[in-house]
């Protein structure tokens, strides 16, 4: 970088080192990865589901963002530093908000299963811990960038998607980014196409047994 600074000095270009923006790295990475940095949906509501979890395996965040067009983005994020469960839930909300804003959300409906987080942000509960006070301030700072927002508490079973992603983040130790492919079997392996009378052969008794519980006849 120093070499480039010297080379470019003759063109009257000022060089300044980039400041640390650790809190923004995740949001920028996701937004750039999906190519949505400039794709804003005007006057339409986005939905954000968040959850955080902390335990012996570390802390993680689960984030589910649904665009107005119905496209769903899932993020499972592992925190490098140990955090309490409440802090993890706040950090999950903070990360989700940063990503949603960078993706172009201006109207946002936010869901969290943490009654503490929801009520402290809405100022129904008093914030007594200094660490949480800073996080509440950071959350409100991002909310102020939105045209409109709504924060709602939901039951854990209604937030199972984000909850599962937060637990996935701490389930295994790994370095760097990681992609996980989830597949679903379309049908049980034993389900085979029905055979009509003209195509019945030695497989037919097996198909009858598997599909209709018809016991094959024994031939002497």
Description:
With 220 residues, the protein is of the alpha/beta class. The chain is built from 7 helices and 5 strands. Strands 3-2-1-4-5 form a 5-stranded mixed beta sheet. A hairpin with a 2-residue loop joins strand 1 and strand 2. Helix 2 (22-34) crosses helix 3 and helix 3 (85-103) runs parallel beside helix 5.
Report the CATH superfamily of the largest domain: Ribonuclease H-like superfamily/Ribonuclease H
Structurally, the number of domains stands at 2
Runs in which pLDDT lies below 50 for 5 or more consecutive residues are: 37-41
Radius of gyration: 26 Å
The proportion of residues in beta strands is: 15-25%
How many strands?
A: 5
Span between N and C termini?
A: 88 Å
CATH topology of the largest domain: Nucleotidyltransferase, domain 5
Structural class: alpha/beta
Spatial strand arrangement across the major sheet: 3-2-1-4-5
| Shape designation | elongated
In DSSP terms (H or I, runs of 4 or more residues), the helix count works out at 7
Into which percent range does the helicity of residues fall? 25-40%
